[in-house]
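QUALITY CONTROL LOG
STEP: pairwise intake check
CHECKER ROLE: data steward
CRITERIA: each record must contain a sequence immediately followed by its structure tokens, with no blank fields

ENTRY 1 OF 2
RESULT FIELD BELOW
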Amino acid sequence: MPYGIACVLVKKSEKMTKKVSFNDLINGEKPVLVDFSAEWCGPCKAMGPILQEVASKIGDTASIVKIDVDKNPGISGQMKIMGVPTFILFQNGKTKWRQSGMMSANALTHVINQAVAENL
């Protein structure tokens, strides 16, 4: 079932908020790292600057999107999000990688670069 989701696109030094279909978001060839988070979550807030750093490292090779689980309960349930932050990397509509908990910028960059390299 397609969900219309409210999400925040993390891009270098700017944030853009828009409403899109989740399927449209994850079905491209370009990898998309989705950060399922919540406003009340301390570790999620701490990940903000880390995600900005990752966005600056990866440039346009991938997208990073934050989805608030409280504002998007349908997709959060569909993706079986049990804790936040949870990161899922999608490419061509498929889950390539999934991890819950805080992560370093280097670890996230490595996962994204690996997905980009596999798709070449």
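ENTRY 2 OF 2
RESULT FIELD BELOW
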Amino acid sequence: MKLIVAEMACLYLLVVGVAFATVGGGDVAIKSKKGEVVFSHDNHVGMGLECTKCHDGLFTTSAQHKKVTMKQMQQGKSCGACHNGKTAFSVKGDCKNCHK
């Protein structure tokens, strides 16, 4: 009987844990001279991107992340790895796509 109760408790915790699990890390605000850029995890995850597409390869934590220039992004660093005009809109051109 104790085994059944223990199994039910574990199953309950598993189901509740999955139900309340969230994907994404919220919005990340990045200050720049051209205007703040707000990166939305929800938008990117909502398009079907897996977290591992960017983490831990391109980005680690905000504390470990190094600033990059627009020129470096245009060469495929940081956001420019996907925002190259092929995979996603390019970092070149319309600044207002990102900078607000």
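INTAKE CHECK: passed for both entries
DESCRIPTIVE NOTE, ENTRY 2: The first strand starts at residue 27 and ends at 30.
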